[in-house]
């Protein structure tokens, strides 16, 4: 940990205790990223762990996941057997990192970090999840997962706002899913991630694309597409210039790999 400028550590028992958000303040959940590199701009940490937001709740409408739910809880929870989409949620945990990270990192933290290689964002978008956002003043509000991340490390959250929980509708938890991700090294960041969901009743299929672009995108088809249809729709939705292009790999390579992963993800 290298946070030499932190002067204050707050542990609120209720969010109402935080009334005046200031520059240099940062929410703290699992802290696996926050403590992994220098954060010279941070002067105050506001720890969320005592707020009791780590719940996993199942009801007739679907699944609710608290923002501070530790990722490994999803691996160990006893979900209904017909909720086949849970496979994608568990893949998001397993694809992230070592068991040490999985037992500390939170679902909400992964989403709010909003890096292209984040493992949960494409799954939440694919399953049409909704996020509850708590402002410091005013009423809580909901947005779709697709609206949440806008750029690399950027979300719609305003200063002081915090992600409270994630809701996934029951009907989307019964889809068949396939999670595909590729990195240049076994423990590296993804250069492309594709998660597919197939509805056997309607024959519709959709893909969530991430890792290769600044923020995730959703692509849908009325039935299982051919390779030609995949290529055409992908190029229409994500032009070559929209792919990340850096010293790791080129945008052309990321585009090519994404097409391959889309094809592989059709194996349900």
From TrEMBL:
Pfam families: FAD_binding_5 (PF00941)
Domain spans labelled FAD-binding PCMH-type: 1-173
InterPro entries: Diverse_Substr_Oxidored, FAD-bd_PCMH, FAD-bd_PCMH-like_sf, FAD-bd_PCMH_sub2, Mopterin_DH_FAD-bd
Domain of life: Bacteria
The protein's name: Xanthine dehydrogenase family protein subunit M
Species whose genome carries this gene: Floridaenema fluviatile BLCC-F154
